Amino acid sequence: SVFMNPIKKSYIIDWSGPYSIESLKDHIYDGADCFYLISGLQKRQRGSDQIQYCGITQRDILRRLKDEFHHINEVPRDCQIWMGRFANLAFRRNRENIELVEHLIIFYEQPYLNDKKTKTPPKRPVVVVNRWRDRNDNYRQRRIYPVQEVPDVIMWDGEDFWAADRLIKDK
Length: 171
Fold this sequence. Notes:
Elements: E1 10-19, H1 21-26, E2 34-41, E3 50-57, H2 61-65, E4 77-86, H3 95-109, E5 126-133, E6 153-156, E7 161-164
Parallel strand pairs: 1-5
Antiparallel strand pairs: 1-4, 2-3, 2-4, 5-6, 6-7
């Protein structure tokens, strides 16, 4: 379309990782109200590691991942966990914001193990900026992990998706 719908929702997500279940135990953080991405390979999958699942939790992430039937149990090979938070902490306690961002990421990326939010795009226009950090909170300059295939900017204008693969530091 020639004219875009107004976009009233935009969010910056700071992702940190990769973690294993073991390294999450050792990492001191407030692990509630976050997003998470799980990458690796399922039992019979071949090829390079893939994004397998995108989720949200309002509980502690370790407790969530240890739920008996959690999808992480289906990713036994090269399993990596990335934890995402709103850069603006004011958005954290609002379930509507959390669900909208999760919906955008799931619909855009179509992770193998997600079965909800894969069929229809988000109901309202939204922009998400993804920033990638290592476990020491330093921004990652290079892309070396499967989840970093998620574009740095994803925009849904209500009709079309727009994406910027990579934001680069201006000199």
